[in-house]
Amino acid sequence: MTVLEYVLIGFIIGVVTTAPVGPVNVMAIQHAVRSGFSHGVFVGLGAVVADTIFAAAAIFGVSAVTNFIDGQLRLIEVVGGALLIIFGLKIWHTHPHLTKDANDAEYSYVGDSTAAFFIAITNPGTIFFFAFIFGALGNYRPEHGDHFGALMMVAGVAAGATTWWVFVSALVSHFKARIDDQWLDRVNHIAGVALIAFGGLIYLDLAINGLSHAAGLWGANP
């Protein structure tokens, strides 16, 4: 695979893993509503740093245990696909709440970004989520020893996550009068469908590879 393909895959993963509306998304939206575009972006960037750390730890950890993964590749893909589908269903049924209290205290850009970072970094489940995603990529992940490819995929994750925060902050600051809990529900529904589709594609790839393998065995044993 090419470097551009690694970056693109990482970009998609970055968007899909960042889009579900959780505490940081709600925090970024609230600050974008109250203080404008740049404040929402700065809140998101704190989470981007945490997600980039998790993604790097996961993908380089995956590379370090490639022999194990290759031996258990189908199991990892099955579990990873199931995890994505389950997480997608959970996101679909999650109903985040946006408060609009104008009397809330104002904080600095750095302070809010730091708070978002610690909210994100204290969620240890994220690294396992990234590990399952990268492991489930199979042949679409960088090969063992391809550190540059792994780095480019991590850069893609960071770029995808950052793009999401820029998009959300711009959208919210422009349409802030219309942002409500129903809007957040729609975002979660879209993110949930994307995760479920990602998991479905993994199973589709498994099925296609399984059929190809069976056809090869049938041809070899007429």
How does this model look, in words?
It is built from nine helices and no strands. It is mainly α. It has one domain. Helix 2 (23-35) crosses helix 8 (147-174), helix 3 (37-64) crosses helix 7 (125-136) and helix 3 runs antiparallel to helix 8. The radius of gyration is 19 Å and the shape is globular. The model has no long low-confidence stretch (mean pLDDT 75).
Brief write-up:
With 222 residues, the protein is mostly helical.
Descriptors for this entry?
222 residues, mainly alpha
Rg, alpha carbons? 19 Å
**Estimated helix fraction:** over 70%
Distance between the termini: 34 Å
Counted up, domains total 1
Q: Using DSSP, what is the number of strands?
A: 0
Topology:
Layout (H helix, E strand, L loop, with lengths): L2 H16 L4 H13 L1 H28 L1 H6 L1 H20 L16 H13 L3 H12 L10 H28 L6 H40 L2
Helix pairs in contact: 1-8, 2-3, 2-8, 3-6, 3-7, 3-8, 5-7, 5-9
